[in-house]
Amino acid sequence: xxxxxxxxxxxxxxxxxxxxxxxxxxxxxxxxxxxxxxxxxxxxxxxxxxxxxxxxxxxxxxxxxxxxxxxxxxxxxxxxxxxxxxxxxxxxxxxxxxxxxxxxxxxxxxxxxxxxxxxxxxxxxxxxxxxxxxxxxxxxxxxxxxxxxxxxxxxxxxxxxxxxxxxxxxxxxxxxxxxxxxxxxxxxxxxxxxxxxxxxxxxxxxxxxxxxxxxxxxxxxxxxxxxxxxxxxxxxxxxxxxxxxxxxxxxxxxxxxxxxxxxxxxxxxxxxxxxxxxxxxxxxxxxxxxxxxxxxxxxxxxxxxxxxxxxxxxxxxxxxxxxxxxxxxxxxxxxxxxxxxxxxxxxxxxxxxxxxxxxxxxxxxxxxxxxxxxxxxxxxxxxxxxxxxxxxxxxxxxxxxxxxxxxxxxxx
Length: 412
Ligand code: SAH
Hints:
The chain is of the alpha/beta class.
């Protein structure tokens, strides 16, 4: 096996179980005598040692600033049943914290990358289907072992769909399809998965990410408790998770907005499936900023409203900052967006506002929202501070895994 030897004193973060080796920490790459290439190959399993040749870890090699993603510490090779053990550990965690793993219709995240000691791997379960996303070349190479471990471990799982077109490093010369069924291809398959007793159409073939945003489950539940008798505006609604919960919570009207026409089709299906007789759901394929600026004609939705205003608004935009360099722009975006919503919301209104940018930490996000409130000049109370749910755990040794944060605000 190829050995990656670290520079002196560069082992400390690994001794504290941080699962990444940065390229700058590497002193030497030692290839086996008969190794056919002159450098390690993308996704290859490598052994990491300190400068005195002591074993530190085993992980996946990848070109780039994160050179090794560690799979196991303190050993020199992976056991043969590695994938079964790690998938079982992730499954047992969800079972032990009472996620609905025994419900054959449930939607939940089974593997959350570093949070489940599987850097580069995401697995979401939708009823009988596991949707697997590889973010590293190493996970791509192991996809069939992972798929086998999933069907062997999770009783509900009958099929495994692999969806890594958009997530694999685009420069890596990888063999094999990046998208397609690994196990159990269905013919003409339509999946409805359940979350807290509501059902959602999941389209992993055409949908964004793995097909659904399971990470907002707890926050959607909280919203349900605030929705009674309110006029709800769900911005960046995607498949309408917040909209459907708001209807169950007794909202007077719900308006769903997303720039994607496909998403709006799914929202309409989800509302009709759960609440076929609900008379006041309005859905628009529109840009959020245009909508909040009143450039889109939202009068139709507003006809029954007092004050012509929404009194519960959800802002759940896509990640504005994908990299550190983009943070200043992202913060400007959050300020602008939140200012518009705080300006528009009726007195006594409630704003659920989120950021899923990993590079924007919760203090920076809170400051952006604070600045927006100050600009608009309204009194705002923070009612709740929200985060990602238990099936998106954060590895205590890798705090970078914290990404979703939200505030629930009361706007006087
Ligand atoms: N709240 C959703 C998830 C939102 S994901 C849920 O609970 O499932 C972010 C969504 O924002 C995506 O659906 C994307 O299509 C949409 N989006 C991106 N840019 C947008 C824009 N400028 N205006 C409106 N929607 C946008």
